Amino acid sequence: MNPTRRPRVLLCDDHLLVAEALKSLLAPEFDLVGVVEDGRAMIEAAGTLRPDVIVADVSMPHLNGIDALVRLRQGGDHTPVVFLTMHRDVAFARRALEAGASGFVLKHSAPAELLTAIRAALDGQIYLTPQLAGEVLDSMKQGPGKAADPVVSLTPRQREIVQLVAEGRSAKEIAATLSISTRTVEFHKYQMMETLGLHTNSELIHFAIKHGLVEL
Fold first, then answer.
1. Cα-only R_g, the chain
2. How far is Cα 135 from Cα 89, in angstroms, rounded to an integer?
């Protein structure tokens, strides 16, 4: 990156007040090249705007931030992503880091911490909020997190579908959004319920909310 050019930041957050506050925080040091409100828009904007770093929420409509990051990496996009989230659960931080995140900061942390995380990401480092660092490292030492975090037992496509189900989309609407058949949607739902030991749509929705795949 040209040292005379201000780093370009893409902001992804569906909360208007948070986005406005972050604009003011970032303005003195960074160029804010775009603000988007959901994970699918994050993927598209990353490709068109070519930011130097992405600051994203975990819970966003249509596609959550962590699964959007997974899609970016699968597509060969290695833009650093720093998550700024309300979720203090170790499972979220671990899932984000395993997906390839460069930072994980809590929204109630001091604003300076986000700036520190962004600078670290731009330098090729990983920043994890001190409020969770010890717990996350302990979790990772215990090995694969499938048992502790049932979300990782789902495929990326299944996580997309369960989020859309929890957002109230019909099988037909989900099929259209993902360019698959309604039969494939129903098959994935059946597979997820078998994997997770769930029996109804309401249980699936509760699972999605509990594990941060969708917000109330």
1. 17
2. 10
pLDDT at 42 (0 to 100): 97
CA distances from 42 to 60, 69, 81 (A): 10, 9, 11
**85 neighbors 93 (Cβ within 8 angstroms):** no
DSSP 8-state assignment for residue 33: E
Task: Calculate the dihedral angle through the C-alpha atoms of 104, 107, 111, 114, rounding to the nearest 10 degrees.
Answer: 20
CA–chain centroid gap for 206, Å, is 19
- Summarised one tens digit per residue, pLDDT across range 94-146 is 889 989 999 999 998 889 999 999 999 999 999 999 888 888 777 777 765 54
Question: Greatest CA separation found in the chain?
Answer: 57
Residues 24-74 have pLDDT tens digits of 999 999 999 999 999 999 999 999 999 999 999 998 888 999 999 999 999
CA-nearest of 48, 5, 45, 10 to 26 is 10
Please list the residues that pair with 11 across neighbouring strands: 35, 55
d(CA 119, CA 53) in angstroms, rounded, equals: 9
Rounded to 5°, the CA angle 128-73-108 comes to: 30
> Measured in whole angstroms, how far is the alpha carbon of residue 114 from the centre of its chain?
16
**Can you tell me the distance from the alpha carbon of 198 to that of 185, in angstroms, rounded to the nearest whole number?**
16
